[in-house]
Specification:
The complex is a heterodimer of chains A (211) and B (706).
Chain A lengths: L8 E5 L3 H13 L3 E5 L2 H7 L6 E6 L7 H10 L6 E5 L4 H9 L4 E4 L4 H33 L3 H11 L4 H8 L3 H15 L4 H10 L9
Parallel strand pairs in A: 1-2, 1-3, 3-4, 4-5
Helix pairs in contact in A: 6-8, 6-9, 7-8
Chain B lengths: L7 H21 L3 H18 L3 E5 L5 E4 L2 H6 L3 H6 L10 H11 L8 E9 L5 E12 L5 E10 L1 H23 L3 E6 L4 E4 L1 H7 L4 H4 L11 H17 L3 E9 L5 E12 L5 E10 L1 H62 L3 E7 L5 E6 L2 H6 L3 H5 L3 H4 L6 H12 L4 E8 L5 E13 L4 E11 L1 H23 L2 H31 L5 H31 L5 E3 L1 H18 L3 E6 L6 E3 L1 H18 L9 E8 L5 E6 L7 H6 L15 H11 L3 E6 L5 E7 L9
Parallel strand pairs in B: 17-19
Antiparallel strand pairs in B: 1-2, 1-5, 3-4, 4-5, 6-7, 6-10, 8-9, 9-10, 11-12, 11-15, 13-14, 14-15, 16-18, 19-20, 20-22, 21-22
Helix pairs in contact in B: 1-10, 15-19, 16-17, 16-21, 18-19, 19-21
Classes of the chains: A alpha/beta (211), B alpha+beta (706).
Chain lengths: 211, 706
């Protein structure tokens, strides 16, 4: 996934035009970029999920509900923080939404600062999530450039094995392992073993802790 | 002058041309577009083919058009002309340019010129003498469009002059040899010469012999000679020509000839008449041919007239036929359309059955709708008793009854079901009428129409089902749910107002304030306020619309109808409902759904009151008993914490609530319903714990009861 440049956007999805416009206006008044959608379907049809931002989402809407959208984004692994807005104060629903990773659950009517704080928090989270996703992508891309042998060596290096041990385990000489190790450090862009461990983790290599 | 008899083929060709033109006129009438296009093409052809160099120069001196003759005359192609620096001056001999410029100066302003000579320098460098004529061109409103010029090669003229000499010699030859007689006399009418033809006619051996003779000395009879002389004398005297006089004269060979005589005075260089020149053309054959041609023409014209009349008549007849056919077709279309509409719109199956003496029915006539409705072919119904075969087994009894009525001479309307070819059940409404025969004293025919009313029947059933569902839903909607719905409806505009107001404040603090956005926020606040007001208005209307449907009710049955629902509700609240319903309650006049709503609401309240009670026996008691005054008292008791005396005082007031998230509408609505039924609602605190709500409804007198 590639990061989309530009300001993170607040996506408001609410079937009630009055509430939708009010939230949009409120966010705009503090200088945020806002896009408003009247239904979940409209959001899914028109909005690129690769964009960076957060959702301000009404729980109950005709057609697909806010919770349905949350499910879809979860299963598509779209890192879009969600703030739920509800007019019902349904505790069970709020619990369910929060368990599934909603960043906030706000009851109507709400204090403007409460929503704005939640939005700011969510946007910061969105940027962080996006950065992490980008870092994972970079690490995975670098890992993909390693030869099979280099990957084997990498797995053993991050497991804390010494060159000598690795040479024995792979049935080769220490000198050869040194060469592999130098090349893979370069390819992974790691300057130290701890940095390599972090990169390997990001790239999804299972790192065994040394016994 | 040549006199030649036209051949038969030529006459036929002429006739054909005339006929074609005539038919063209008869058929075409007026086709202005085609005619214009033809004229235009003709003009273009003429312009392009004109021998002289034709051109059109704009007022600015720019060449607009030049005909292809330019290439022949100058050696430049049309296209090259357009690229010449200055037309026509680039083509002009250096020595003549100045003069021609001067001459053409006013051309575009309207001057004209005719036959102005100049030398033209051809592309190959050779020089040719030409003469130019020009005139300016205007369009209709008088706007100047430049001038057109026509340049003519006059080098030919000179050659012609030279040729003239040759031609004069030729002329002498011709005079000598033409079939007409030519002579000339002096002013004393003495022959000075003639040609061979005249010599022959005059009976002299050669033209030379006639010189010095007078008419008296020739072969003419004296009267003839006198006549010739008189005419010649007159020409000499008056000095006027005497042209084309037809005369019939006997000539030297003794034959009578028709002559076309022309005489002209011969003048000297001083203009004095010196003599007379005569030409006698023998037009005998021409006259005969002419007569023949005239006859042929008359005949032709007669035939053309006849053909024209024929064509006109045929044309008129054709037009009449066309009009007639269009009228007929239109009438036919209208008729077909009507028929189609009628057959499409008529869904009735009309029929005539003959009743045979044995009582068997025979189909005499049935409309197509039968097949449509039953799915059976016509042969199915044409079979004896075919109609009855499709009837649904359960409805055959109805059909028998219908038969009896019809046979007794009465008309009948019956609704019954049939099973169509697809096995589907269709409802029919049948109107049948018997035809009684006084002679046979029996019904001999049955005629009628059956209509497919399945859709109508299904709609009726659907409406019944819908009504039942509606009542079910209405019963189950409690006041609390209504309140929740109301809360949501109010909450939306409220939230919008609050949010917009807060944003407006924020916008006001900004520097500079965004007044457009501020205005929009305030407008939205106003709009939301109106929306909230609209919710209230709708609620009022809803309550007003719920006019109770007053019927006499047995309250025991009314409660039993919602008992299942109440018990389910109680289970949901981990509680139980205990019913204490006295038998033999007096009847109550009221709306069952509204009263059920009151009961539901009171029980729901009671259940909710016990939500925070420790687990254990949570019981709501619902009792109905007669009152000594003949009223019915319904009471709902709970075992909850009860109400404070403060709460007890306000509990029936609108918007008073002790429940978190409650709206305070339930009991208020209950009270309005009960009071609308002429009853009372009250609350007492229980001795042990909890509260009891009482609804007292006036009973109806036994004779009014159901």
């Amino acid at each position: 996934m590639t990061a989309t440049a530009g300001q993170p956007t607040v996506f408001v999805v609410d079937d009630d035009a009055g509430v939708r416009q009010m939230i949009s206006r409120m966010a705009r008044s503090v200088g945020l970029a806002v896009e408003a959608y009247s239904s979940v379907q409209e959001f899914l049809d028109l909005c690129d999920p690769a964009r960076v931002g957060c959702l301000v989402l009404d729980v109950r809407m005709p057609g697909l509900s806010g919770l349905d959208l949350q499910d879809r984004l979860l299963s598509a692994q779209v890192p879009l923080p969600i703030i739920f807005i509800t007019g019902h104060g349904d505790i069970a629903m709020g619990v369910r939404a929060m368990k599934r990773g909603a960043v906030d659950f706000i009851e109507k009517p709400f204090h403007d600062q409460m929503l704005l704080d939640a939005i700011h928090g969510a946007l910061a989270k969105a940027v962080a999530w996006r950065r992490e996703a980008d870092e994972r992508a970079v690490a995975r891309a670098r890992l993909a450039t390693l030869t099979r042998r280099e990957q084997q060596v990498l797995a053993l290096v991050v497991a804390g094995k010494l060159n000598k041990q690795i040479a024995v385990e792979l049935g080769t000489t220490e000198q050869t392992i040194k060469l592999h190790r130098g090349r893979l450090m370069k390819k992974m862009g790691a300057e130290s073993v701890p940095a390599l461990v972090v990169l390997a983790q990001r790239a999804g290599v299972i790192v065994q802790t040394p016994e | 002058m040549s006199a030649r008899r036209p051949t038969k083929a030529e006459l036929a060709a002429e006739l054909e041309t005339l006929r074609a033109e005539l038919e063209g006129r008869a058929a075409g009438g007026g086709r202005p577009t085609a005619a214009t296009a033809q004229t235009e093409a003709l003009f273009r052809a003429v312009a392009d083919c004109t021998y002289d160099l034709e051109s059109w120069v704009s007022p600015e001196g720019k060449l607009l058009w030049v005909n292809p003759a330019v290439e022949r005359l100058t050696g430049y192609t049309v296209d090259e002309c357009f690229s010449l620096p200055e037309y026509p001056f680039a083509l002009v001999h250096e020595a003549d340019v100045g003069a021609l410029r001067e001459a053409l100066r006013g051309a575009a302003e309207g001057s004209t010129g005719n036959d102005v000579p100049f030398r033209l320098r051809r592309k190959d460098g050779s020089v040719v003498w030409v003469a130019v004529s020009w005139q300016s061109i205007h369009d209709r409103p008088g706007l100047r469009l430049g001038y057109r010029s026509s340049i003519r090669d006059i080098s030919d003229r000179k050659r012609v002059e030279e040729a003239l000499q040759t031609q004069r010699a030729l002329l002498d030859q011709i005079i000598a040899h033409i079939p007409s007689g030519v002579y000339w006399k002096d002013r004393h009418l003495v022959y000075q010469g003639c040609n061979a033809a005249f010599a022959r006619a005059a009976g002299v051996a050669s033209p030379a012999e006639i010189v010095g003779k007078t008419d008296y000395e020739l072969v003419w009879e004296p009267a003839q000679a006198e006549r010739f002389r008189t005419r010649d004398e007159r020409v000499v005297r008056t000095a006027e020509a005497w042209l084309n006089i037809e005369d019939s004269e006997r000539q030297a060979d003794g034959r009578q000839r028709v002559l076309l005589i022309s005489k002209v005075p011969l003048r000297g260089a001083d203009g004095e008449v010196r003599g007379v020149l005569g030409i006698d053309a023998d037009i005998t054959e021409l006259k005969e041919t002419e007569a023949e041609l005239r006859r042929a023409r008359d005949d032709l014209e007669e035939r053309v007239r006849a053909r024209t009349a024929e064509l006109a008549a045929a044309n008129q007849e054709l037009q009449r036929e066309v009009v007639e056919r269009q009228r007929t077709e239109r009438a036919l279309r209208v008729s077909e359309e009507r028929y189609r509409l009628v057959s499409e719109l008529t869904t009735d199956c009309a029929y005539v059955f003959r009743v045979l003496p044995g009582g068997t029915l025979q189909t005499e006539w049935v409309t197509d709708a039968f097949a449509r409705i039953t799915g059976q072919g016509a042969e199915a119904v044409e079979a004896p008793e075919g109609w009855e075969r499709v009837v649904h087994p359960d409805d055959r009894v109805l059909l028998s009854r219908r038969r009896e009525l019809l046979e007794s001479g009465r008309s009948t309307t019956t609704e019954f079901r049939i099973v169509n070819a697809m096995g589907q059940v269709r409802w029919l409404r049948d109107h049948a009428r018997p035809i009684w025969s006084p002679d046979e004293h029996r019904v001999v025919r049955i005629l009628g129409a059956a209509q497919d009313v399945t859709a109508q029947k299904e709609a009726e059933e659907e409406a019944h089902r819908h009504e039942a569902a509606l009542m079910h839903v209405a019963r189950q909607i409690t006041m609390g749910e209504l309140a929740a719905q109301l809360a949501h409806e109010f909450n939306q505009p409220l939230c919008t107002m609050v949010g917009n107001a807060q944003t407006a404040l924020r916008l006001l603090k900004a520097e500079p304030p965004d007044f457009a956005e501020l205005g929009a926020a305030l407008a939205d606040i106003a709009l939301s306020g109106q929306r909230a007001a609209e919710v209230i208005r709708r609620l009022r209307e809803l309550l007003r619309q719920q006019q109770p449907r007053m019927v006499v009710l047995n309250m025991q049955r009314v409660i039993e109808d919602v008992a299942g629902f109440l018990e389910a509700d109680a289970r949901h609240h981990k509680a139980a409902v205990q019913f204490q319903l006295s038998a033999g309650l007096p009847g109550v006049c009221g709306d069952p759904i509204q009263l059920q709503q009151v009961i539901l609401n009171l029980v729901r309240n009671a259940l909710e009151a016990m939500v925070n009670q420790p687990a254990g026996p949570r019981t709501v008691t619902l009792a109905a008993r007669p009152d000594p005054d003949g009223a019915v008292v319904i009471s709902v008791s709970d075992e909850g914490p009860g109400l404070s005396s403060e709460a007890a005082a306000h509990v029936f007031e609108p918007f008073y609530t002790t429940k978190p998230g409650g709206l305070g509408m339930g009991l208020a609505i209950c009270r309005s319903i009960v009071e609308a039924h002429g009853g009372r609602i009250g609350m007492t605190r229980n001795v042990a714990r909890g509260a009891t709500f009482h609804v007292t409804l006036p009973g109806v007198k036994p004779e009014e009861g159901a």
